[in-house]
Amino acid sequence: MSVSPANEGGRWRALPLLGLKAGKLVVTVAITFLGLMVVTFLIGRVVPVDPVLAVVGDRASKSTYDAAYIALGLDKPLYYQFWIYLKQALSGDLGMSVLTKKPIVEDIKRVFPATLELATCGIIIGTLVGVPLGIWGAVRQGRLPDQVIRVVGLVGYSAPIFWLGLLGLLVFYAKLQWVAGPGRIDIAYEYNFTQTTGILLLDTAMQGQWDAFRNVVAHLALPATLLGYFSMAYISRMTRSFMLAELGQEYITAARVKGVPEWRIIWVHALRNAAVPLVTVIALSYAGLLEGSVLTETVFAWPGLGQYLTNSLQNADMNAVLGGTLVIGIIFVGLNLLSDLLYTVLDPRVRRRT
């Protein structure tokens, strides 16, 4: 099959445009990352915590304090300190943790899978429940189901999550004993398998340790459901708003006049268009769970990134706090970028404009 010269020329003319788009994307990500680094660096300099005392202790002599002050580079100008911080971060060196005496990168690699597992289960629950509830509320606008869904969402959106966690432990663990208690796994099962990925659901399932798998599920059920409820409240609310906007469009009226079945109008035509902005909502909700599960991890003694940051902050380990904050910022930027790319894939109109 031959290609016409016109088509071949069109493809070649499209290459500079694709290169320009890729260049704009790279520049945008670089500027965002640089801004994130600046904010993170400045936070470490304005907090009322002396990083030298965190290293040498408050009983160190003045000579020891001065030596540590110079070794940390705090005697250098602020712009030079930032340049050193930027070079180290770009090379993957976030410094040493005062609390664990280990590189912060290793600490984050150790604790992040727990947060990833918890947040992923939470966003799956929130999406699978929130999207249908939001659609149902939009279809039944102003009726009893809509009112109930809005009240349930309002409670989940406004109630403190640590209070819900404590209440859940009291009812479902202490009283009813439907779920396991705090932590990720009971110590009786902890050494029955090897943690290869750090995500215990995957590790236990891949190694066929089904007793340990059920124990992991029992520990995960309550905190993941609470995070899912929290995200469901926001996702259902936004889904309802997007669906109401689409159901009021002229193409929906035209489809009804043509006799298109109502289920097809809702689940195919309206939901297809509402799914485009909904992708961004779900992605940002996921990022919020990854960085906002601090209180949940504290209540449930979940050894993830949130608890790591809490312990580091309580012990004035600012290197660990700033390293974790930087990782959270990168997650937000990455998921926001991913949602923009999915937005482009799902909506042809965006592809034509970009």
TrEMBL record:
One of its GO terms (cellular component) is plasma membrane. It is a multi-pass membrane protein. Keywords: Cell membrane, Membrane, Transmembrane, Transmembrane helix, Transport. InterPro entries: BPD_transp_1_N, MetI-like, MetI-like_sf. Its main location: membrane. Pfam families: BPD_transp_1, BPD_transp_1_N. SUPFAM superfamilies: MetI-like. It is found in: Cell membrane. Residues 112-343 form the ABC transmembrane type-1 domain. This is Peptide/nickel transport system permease protein. It comes from Loktanella atrilutea.
